[in-house]
């Protein structure tokens, strides 16, 4: 049962719909006050009363029944206590009957969301800085699918620019096909680093010419470029497979080469394009921003030009209700600028473009530079997490079957969870010891809790019928946390914050472990209590599995 909906539909507040009341109802920090709370401060202006008086008035008129057992007014809050037995029974039945679909909905039916994330740069390996965009975008993709949306995952490939002329030039001077085939993307990156360290003025000129040849369709230059691209895609697909990431489109920057001119023409026609020192710009000074550069003085296009073309193409192709860009906060100005340009062009859907900004991820030794070769590769981070997970698992449970497979699930999960546990905008300093801690607020702790629940259920065998009688504090707090999963998923989608799901998983795990130690399960005092607690255990395992699936993390049966 959705208790927030049940409560909101029975409330009448002047000027507020039941949907608005639903959004205001929250879980109070002190559960002794109640299970749900409605703050009345927002109603004061409309009702011309103090929040305290409003809460007291609502308390007198709210119909207490077999679902809501008590209503109290305290300091401007209306607190609701639910019938614990009824809530426990309804929640467990709903979770166990719906299984994997518990928490899902069809709220997004008929709506399309495009998500631009990860954005592979051709010929460059993933470094740890790519972790957030990849797993954050991947989680949002899964969350919106879970809520019934048609989701289009877009990998906006970085496959356009002068760096490809430099790569071809470096390959022509120092590379050979056999070594590059063997070394793959890392061999290509070594050539790129070497070019930036050793290139002469003559080589820089050659590089510009090679890029011109790519643009003009030269057969040899494009064959080399496509070869670099195929090596890159083979490399990244292995990482995506480990991280459980999928895409529906790999249309990159080059794809929009022939789609930019109509945008430039439209800007001209609408009087938005101005000349500035030989370049073409859209003046955004009246809106408190620097000008948006559309064409350089030499006629070359820029990121904004291609992003404008891409946004228009996506709207025409997918007719999205929202288009999300999962890109680091350093690009805040870029997105504000090109969103504003689309608005000035008269695109009413410009309001549906959202920059989902996130903080940076680094290791303890700080920032990285691909050009200088000072970088921590994402694959190395993942592999090290798996290696450390194997070591810890081997120490804790040396007789565990499929240790390597479990270590993969635990190690990869630790890397993902490390990027998804905090609010997305925060910078993260990645620590191997922290993310693989069995006792901390980590994926390993959640996985270990799930394995514990699975062990109890395996030992118990079949779970019989039960009748809910008394519900103690440990049981009820856990069941209430499980019941909040659907609301948490919805809120994570609304706020673009998978961390809300991550934190709920930790909260559920903490409450389950308290329940596990406080309440006898297999050796309960009677069969009815045993079956009731087994149902709680089974529901906990179900919700943790569903929640972790939305983050892109697996849960081993044993650890």
Task: Write up this protein.
This protein has helices at 3-9, 18-24, 44-47, 51-61, 84-98, 131-146, 163-174, 177-198, 201-215, 219-243, 260-269, 303-318, 332-344, 378-396, 403-420, 432-435, 443-460, 473-483, 485-495, 499-518, 527-551; strands spanning 36-39, 68-74, 77-82, 112-116, 150-154, 273-276, 279-282, 292-295, 322-328, 353-358, 361-362, 428-429. It is flat, with a radius of gyration of 28 Å. Residues 369-373 have low confidence and may be disordered. It starts with a helix and ends in an 8-residue tail after the last helix. Strand 9 (322-328), helix 13 (332-344) and strand 10 (353-358) form a beta-alpha-beta unit. The protein has 559 residues and is of the alpha/beta class. Helix 5 packs across helix 18 (473-483). 40% of the residues are buried. It has a four-stranded parallel sheet with strand order 5-4-9-10, with helices on both faces. Strands 1-3-2 form a three-stranded antiparallel sheet. It has 21 helices and twelve strands. Among the domains are: 3-82, Arginyl tRNA synthetase N-terminal domain (Gyrase A, domain 2), CATH 3.30.1360.70; 163-243, no CATH class; 389-551, Isoleucyl-tRNA Synthetase, Domain 1 (Orthogonal Bundle).
